[in-house]
Amino acid sequence: MQKSKRAVVLLSGGLDSSTTLAIARHAGFEIYALSFRYGQRHAAELDAAKRIAAKFGVAEHVISTIDLRAFGGSALTDSAIEVPKHRELAAMAEGIPVTYVPARNTVFLSFALAWCEVLGAFDIFIGVNALDYSGYPDCRPEYVSAFEKMSNLATKAGVEGAARFTIHAPLIELSKSEIIRRGVELGVDYGLTVTCYDPDATGAACGACDACLLRLKGFAENAIRDPARYRSSAA
Q1: How far is CA 86 from CA 42, 73, 89, 174, 194, in A?
Q2: pTM score over 0.90
Q3: What CA–CA distance (Å, rounded) separates 50 from 54?
Q4: CA-only gyration radius of the chain, Å
Q5: Domains and CATH numbers, the chain
Q6: Per-residue pLDDT of the chain (235 residues; tens, 9 = 90+)
Q7: Could you give the angle at the alpha carbon of 21 between the alpha carbons of 16 and 26, nearest 5°?
Q8: Burial, 167: exposed, middle or buried (Cβ in 10 Å; 0-12, 13-18, 19+)?
């Protein structure tokens, strides 16, 4: 029996990364999930990542600690910067919002690449999306392609030609409703996930930030009730 190929999957605990993990597993990969304690304002998403990793029975789940609060510059790492609420969908696509964490995906993918080298893996999955997204420059196809090229230039395995690294972004051209539909087909329990940029201490979502609004829109378009917990004031 042929051994499954290994893949490192970036797992935040949110809707997109959880769906991506399910897609990678469905494709036959042995999953090594990688999450980060990067100085984000809340730990709820890490609790969600643990739940998802356990649910899908990953081979290993690593939570790596890096502190991007040292640089600040984002509403997700600096409590002095307010998370935008109640924005119109059209406004989300205009400019780069304060919830952008400088170079975050580049940092995360670099860690994933390093772990791949140790594992002898050549596949990395990331749940970036270029349709229903809030103006993030590191969620674009051009960025994913550029990082893949760099991966094959800057690694021992790439230089020696053992194999080529591939950065998989299976959600990049999907709408949020399409992502949810695919996840439901693959058995993702979205009640285990946390997408909100500003959940309360219990992990209940605010229902008003960009991430919540896009998520709710996606579920509504599928005529499915979002199983996530929301604050009573957001219900």
Answers
A1: 20, 21, 9, 23, 18
A2: yes
A3: 6
A4: 17
A5: 6-195 (3.40.50.620)
A6: 346 799 999 999 999 999 999 999 999 999 999 999 999 988 899 999 999 999 999 999 999 999 999 999 999 999 899 999 999 988 887 888 999 999 999 999 999 999 999 999 999 999 999 876 557 899 999 999 999 999 999 999 989 988 999 999 999 999 999 999 999 999 999 999 999 999 998 899 999 999 999 999 999 999 999 999 999 755 4
A7: 125
A8: buried
Which residue type does 162 have? Answer: A
Q: Tell me the two tokens of residue 207.
A: 């229902």
